[in-house]
Here is the input.
Amino acid sequence: MTDLVSITFLGGLGDIGRNCAAIESQNQILLLDCGQLFPDEMMPGAQSVLPDFSYLEDRSEKIVGCIATHGHEDHIGALRYALDISEFPIYGSEFTLGMIRHRLSEANMLHKTDLIAVADGETVSIGDFHCEFLPVTHSTPKGLISAIRTPQGLILHSSDFKLDNNPVDGRITDLDRIATLSKDPGIRLLLCDSTNAELSGSSISESEVGDGLEEIFMKFQHERIIATCFSSHIHRIQQIIDISKEQGRKVATLGFSMERNISLARSLGVISVSEDDLVDISEIETYPKNQICVISTGSQGEPRSSLNLSAQNSGKWLRIDENDVIIFSSRTIPGNEKRVARLVNNLVSLGASVVNDENLNTHTSGHGQREELSELHQAANPEWFIPVHGELRHLVAHRELAIEVGTNPKNALLATDGDQVVMEDSGLTLNRKKCQGHYIFSQGSIVETGHDLFKDRNILGKEGCVIARVSISGKDKTLIGAPSVISKGWLSADISGRHEQEIEEQLSSELKSFLESRKEWTQEVLEQKVRRVTGTMVNDSTKRRPMIIPLVDILP
Ligand SMILES: [Zn+2]
Ligand SMILES: [Zn+2]
Here is the structure.
């Protein structure tokens, strides 16, 4: 019998974000990505949500390395926290490692790892896992598909993936090699990106977006153009630079990460731009408007981005007026719609024109749609399949697609965060909730598990709190002094005092009769009583549900 191999999904199966899986043999664990999830409005205050690392804590000695498939935050953003658990090398393309190097040096964690660059087509042994890396097209350069040889056969991980026959860098997804691997040695298990598994057809090529952008540039030849996109989308940036050059525009960058990523891409030859084509953002006002294109971050309406500040007339370098056109060359991430709408309204109020992909092809997804996914399934022809990288609905749609294109239904498994799949000679079995898959989040300098914290914060945020404090003499069993009630965020200051006073009076009279009628009570019973009286008063007078905090001091 061959040794077992298991895969434990620590994140990314149920959300788009915090991608991380632990591939585990007898003595070794190979991590596959280690990303963060951006918290939504249900997690107020959290800065970053991490994979559930609890599974790794008592297995940290086994970790032999991590493959970083590409440089997006949902794949690399939690590495700095994982390196707190154990030191291990990170494997990825030069560009991906460049992104990681920035992130880890900011966190002062660079010394805890070796960054080991791998090239397209290269095979590297990470512990006992023999990994071959293949090129894949995506919305950031130099992503890698991983073909991982394990004692239980070959695992193929698609990374974030699309098929683009005309990518800006000419580097296409290597389906041919996948087809070869599918014959020899055969693919035991396919793990594949599910983000766009609900969308029929194929995504448009990145170069078609270039055509769309060119049309817009032609239309606005007399205006200054400000194009905003993700700073990791180097190919989009390349196209904007190329079109600007053709039109005789100099390019300036706005936003720290834009400048940093372009400089990384230049140093690795991933982007082609000469010093002559560029101008410093501080000099743009010295050029006629139609000779400038600004490439900017801030496409998600981030409050502190330079674009957002400029839209409110408080930008340092960029003053926007009716001779400016702002092109949104990005998708609005769900949850950011209101911020982006506010940004657009502010830009329009300054007289600027705004173009986004509702009007024209200014963006394409980096994730393949159903036809592209089908092609990958057909090339890989895996024995087993697990959809990854998606919300539950995407995973379900992707599983159905796999069955449509020929995977045996019993071999298409639907796993979610915390589940573990065990590979053995006789087949794969799914163990539900091997770890909890909890949301681990970071805020300030603390990393912790959410549990009820966000429930409390949501109540506090929406309803405020009412604190009722009473002192009781343990000896005489009587109330000492008057109860005191204070509230925060429950009612506006001009009316809260009156309501607080009414509660104080009610508490005083109800507690007096309670204490006279009951000789035996515990602190807990008294707290319940205070909570009930306060809650009833709050509800009767305001029909609101703030958090009630009873404080009972029993004095000797
Ligand atoms: Zn990605
Ligand atoms: Zn991703």
